[in-house]
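We were asked to recover a plausible sequence for a given structure. The inputs and outputs are reproduced exactly as logged, with field labels preserved.

PROBLEM: sequence recovery
POSITIONS: 71
GIVEN STRUCTURE:
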């Protein structure tokens, strides 16, 4: 089973970036996967990856994250 990255403020620390109300773990395997998908021109898959791995993030937030932080 996959492990979801905690997106709550209490998890903030080294290796995180803030985006809206989320603290994103930049060391998580899914983050590297999403960046790789963007580099390969697979934006929709990158958005799905972000949304599926950040607890509570909706589709629009995931799209904005990919466009603003990963592109």
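RECOVERED SEQUENCE:
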């Amino acid at each position: 089973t996959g492990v979801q990255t905690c997106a709550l403020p209490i998890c903030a620390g080294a290796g995180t970036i803030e985006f809206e109300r989320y603290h994103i773990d930049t060391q998580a395997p899914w983050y590297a996967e999403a960046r790789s998908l963007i580099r390969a021109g697979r934006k929709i898959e990158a958005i799905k990856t972000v949304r599926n791995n950040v607890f509570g993030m909706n589709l629009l937030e995931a799209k904005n994250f990919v466009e603003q932080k990963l592109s």
